[in-house]
């Protein structure tokens, strides 16, 4: 490090002005501009015979390269009054306040909470798999690896123009990385990142479930397309759905998610509730069916279905949700907080409550599918989306 600035050079002068054409120190300039001790110290520095260009160096690492971990600590120490808890609560607030689809907010929240079903997470939970990334086969599949770290997504993030998306550090998890990135980004950057991250994960899921590795070249364009659609004046998708006035299931506006609930009831037998949460495209975020062994009535079962559905939504931190079921009495009792509808509009929840499903054992009372759904509702889900 230079101890004093050489006179005659401004702050933007490069070290190269002190070197001759063979890359050796120009002693005349050193002696002229530095003290004797400084010139001697500089002279001891090895000169670069390859004459590469000057580059910016990150002063917090010994190698001069950027490190996410050190940057995170700088951000954290720059505001010492902010505890880790406060820092994290600000992170959640920023995620939920994003002007984007609820499913996108929810997705980013899940990555930050480290609850995505990545290879590494499944292995940690005792699933017998190697935990490696199926896209590159080079590293364990953690959340941060799947979204930005994988070599298969590097080209995509490089063209995005977002800062920090190609900078990861093995010691920093996604949450810490995102806190650091948010300190650099504006709200549009964060929203673009969230949409793109969700698309990267969907691409990974398709590959995982044998649907082939999707082309990544158009992914950023599609990300920008979604952002403009959500932030422009027009809402073409909403209009499209508004025109569909038949009795079948109606997707919610892009601003909300929709919860459909139903219950099966037969006196003296085990009854079940069924619920499903979908977004404005009809994509299933979660589905659940739960068993009840007790004497009950049809209205209580229908009310329990609403309760179970809302409880599932709460567990997933989903609040902007529309509730739909087919029990007029129960929904009237709920004081107009939900809508009752015909069986046709509610058939997926109906199947979840009625049709046979294999519970894992006799003790488990509920089955939950996240980002997935049981085969028995496939056809009903598809027909809900046919216009
Ligand atoms: Zn990978």
From TrEMBL:
The family database entries (Pfam families) matched by this protein are listed as:
RVT_3, zf-RVT
What Gene3D superfamilies is this protein classified in? Ribonuclease H-like superfamily/Ribonuclease H
Q: What is the top-level taxon of the source organism? A: Eukaryota
Signal peptide residue numbers:
none
Name of the featured protein: Reverse transcriptase zinc-binding domain-containing protein
Residue ranges occupied by any RNase H type-1 domain in the UniProt entry: 260-347
> What GO molecular function annotation could you give as one example from this UniProt entry?
nucleic acid binding
Identify the PANTHER family for this entry.
BNAC02G40300D PROTEIN, POLYNUCLEOTIDYL TRANSFERASE, RIBONUCLEASE H-LIKE SUPERFAMILY PROTEIN
């Amino acid at each position: 490090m230079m101890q004093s600035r050489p006179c005659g050079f401004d702050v933007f002068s490069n070290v190269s002005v002190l070197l001759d054409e063979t890359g050796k120190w120009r002693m005349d300039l050193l002696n002229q501009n530095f003290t004797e001790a400084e010139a001697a110290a500089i002279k001891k520095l090895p000169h670069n015979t390859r004459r590469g260009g000057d580059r910016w160096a990150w002063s917090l690492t010994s190698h001069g390269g950027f490190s996410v971990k050190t940057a995170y600590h700088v951000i954290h120490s720059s505001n010492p009054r902010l505890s880790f808890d406060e820092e994290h609560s600000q992170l959640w607030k920023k995620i939920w306040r994003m002007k984007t689809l609820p499913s996108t907010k929810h997705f980013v929240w899940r990555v930050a909470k480290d609850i995505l079903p990545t290879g590494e997470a499944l292995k940690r939970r005792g699933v017998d798999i190697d935990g490696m990334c199926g896209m590159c086969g080079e590293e364990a599949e953690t959340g941060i690896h799947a979204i930005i770290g994988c070599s298969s997504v590097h080209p995509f993030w490089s063209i995005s123009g977002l800062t920090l998306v190609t900078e990861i550090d093995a010691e920093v998890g996604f949450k810490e990385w995102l806190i650091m990135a948010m300190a650099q980004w504006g709200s549009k950057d964060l929203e673009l990142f969230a949409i793109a991250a969700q698309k990267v994960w969907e691409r990974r899921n398709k590959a995982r479930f044998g649907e082939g590795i999707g082309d990544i070249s158009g992914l950023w364009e599609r990300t920008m397309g979604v952002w403009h659609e959500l932030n422009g004046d027009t809402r073409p998708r909403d209009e499209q759905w508004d025109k569909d006035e038949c009795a079948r299931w109606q997707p919610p506006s892009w601003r909300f998610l929709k919860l459909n609930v139903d219950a099966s009831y037969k006196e003296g037998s085990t009854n079940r509730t069924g619920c499903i949460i979908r977004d404005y495209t009809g994509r299933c975020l979660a589905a659940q069916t739960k068993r009840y062994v007790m004497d009950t009535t049809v209205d209580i079962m229908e009310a329990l279905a609403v309760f179970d559905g809302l409880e599932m939504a709460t567990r997933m931190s989903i609040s902007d949700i529309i509730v739909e079921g087919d029990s007029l009495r129960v929904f009237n009792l709920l004081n107009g907080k939900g809508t009752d509808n015909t069986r046709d509009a509610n058939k997926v929840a109906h199947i979840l409550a009625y049709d046979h499903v294999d519970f894992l054992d006799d003790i488990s009372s509920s089955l939950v599918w996240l980002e997935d759904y049981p085969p028995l509702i496939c056809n009903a889900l598809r027909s809900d989306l046919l216009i």
